[in-house]
Amino acid sequence: SVILFFVLCFSSWAHTQEVINDRPIIGIVTQEVYKSSKAPVNATSQIYASYVKFIESSGARVVPIWIRQPKSYYTNLLAKINGVLFPGGGVKLDGSGYGRTGKIILDIATQMNDKGDYFPVWGTCLGFELLTLLVAKKDLRKACLAQDLPTNLTFTTVFKESRMFRELDRKLENSMKNRDVVIHYHQWCFTTQNFSTSGLDKYFKILALNQDSRNMTFVSIIEALHYPYFGVSFHPEKVVFEWPMTKTHKRIPHSPEAIQVSQYFGNFFVNEARRSNHSFPSKEMEDSVLIYNYNPVFTGKSRNNPTVQKYFFQ
């Protein structure tokens, strides 16, 4: 009975050591406004509102992270928030404020994690590509045809050994494997050969694959082996929050199964952010940087605009 008491006490103590922060705040990196954005004249950067909703619907708040700022801005902000999302988009990775900001953020996040300060990073589509570029230090993308392409997920043999999927239930796993529950919008892909020849497979574990419209197999989900960094080549946020019916954007799945899959990814990342104990020193400082200070624009009513809402920043 003494041994049992010790085990129970030790288990309880061990459980309390993991931070559970029920007020997580996640930063979403802004990006340059580009020609097809249909942005206001004075706008210099933007965020697709679907990413904000994606994070908020899983129980976190959002802070926009400005591009082209001094390193001190990112160091100070990351010390107060609980994770970062690199969103998809249409800017170039090399030479853009988005790309340079991503490098600074990943460097800071890695320093934090190396010191035991848990800090997760998520990349979607272009953000997925950014993660691989920053780690490989060269562009390994291969042209592919994955525009407006709904697919299932073909898991690798190690997917259940990952943080992302170790608690995946059988019903949702079957939906992911057997139904078109994710949507791709990218013209660049990573092959498994690119991953192995570049050494990326020593940094990231490949969790799932897909095929493009020409049957080229590409990597669709990755997770870092030793850091809480995650990337998906598809768009979970679009499944729940984007409703276009244009010539180039009309096949986004909105089935109950697809919605549940997207919510799984959002919930997973926000739960990762709950493991960070960062916080703002005051409510006033916290309030001053939240996305609530800005209003989204209904861009979806413009003809052929594939995005329902965007935030534009001056």
Automatic annotation (TrEMBL):
> Where, by residue number, is the active site?
125 (nucleophile), 235 (proton donor), 235
- EC number assigned by the record: 3.4.19.9
Q: Which UniProt keywords apply?
A: Hydrolase, Secreted, Signal
Q: Name one GO molecular function term.
A: gamma-glutamyl-peptidase activity
Q: Can you quote a single GO CC term?
A: extracellular region
List the catalytic activities from the record: (6S)-5,6,7,8-tetrahydrofolyl-(gamma-L-Glu)(n) + (n-1) H2O = (6S)-5,6,7,8-tetrahydrofolate + (n-1) L-glutamate
Where in the cell?
Secreted, Extracellular space
EC category: hydrolase
In the record, which residues are listed under signal peptide? 1-16
Q: Which Gene3D superfamilies match?
A: 3.40.50.880
GO annotation terms (biological process):
tetrahydrofolylpolyglutamate metabolic process
**Coiled coil located at which positions?**
none
Name where it mostly resides: secreted
Report the Pfam families cross-referenced here.
Peptidase_C26
The record's PANTHER family line, in alphabetical order, gives:
FOLATE GAMMA-GLUTAMYL HYDROLASE (PTHR11315:SF0), PROTEASE FAMILY C26 GAMMA-GLUTAMYL HYDROLASE (PTHR11315)
What family is this protein classified in?
Answer: Belongs to the peptidase C26 family.
Protein name as catalogued: folate gamma-glutamyl hydrolase
Organism lineage: Eukaryota, Metazoa, Ecdysozoa, Arthropoda, Chelicerata
